[in-house]
Design a protein that fits this description.
Helix content is 68%, strand content 0%. It is mainly alpha-helical. It is elongated. It starts with 26 loop residues before the first helix and ends with a helix.
Length: 219
Amino acid sequence: MYDAGVTFPVSRAVSTPPGPPPSRPSTRDALVQATRAAIAEGGLTSVTAREITGRAAANLAAIGYHFGSKDALVTEALIAEVSELVEPVLDLLDSAGPPEELAADAVAALNELLTTTSARIPVYLAALSCTPHDAEVRGRLASLWAKVRGRLAANIERQAEAGLLPAWIEPAAMAALILAVAQGVVVSTAWSQDDSTAPDSSAVAGQFLGLLLAARTRQ
């Protein structure tokens, strides 16, 4: 029989513990991101350690702890910016597919970087401006662009071996020319942004891509 003196535990819904909060970037990463943002907005010469740490919500000592100096942090920020810009092109050139299509897609990707990331161009230009006087920036930028140039040259060589390109094209030189044009467009975009008569970067890249295609089809 039911005993009125006996009590039974009341079942309770088991609550699911909350998941971990969204991860915050490490102090080191936050300092790099803050430096990139500061350069993009105010230029390289206006960046101060106090502004960087303010943006990163870090103390001034964090720069010395993680990088040794503000100059080293700025170098890291500049290289991080260029690496991030170059990475999609490298991934594209490393992917599978007909070499002629990959080459055209790579040029189009370079154009897209210019048209969709124009706000980041000042940081890239700041990196270039450091190269005459900063051996580390110069060396690391040269290494990054050497990777892109090497991938492009290998792609062009495969097209030549397949009979898709005329015999006068030299893969390494053509790869260097493609990168030189791309970087020239970056520079011209910076100084012509207020010139309403200047063609936009997508039109310039389209013309260059047309020349490359013409070289392939008029063998």
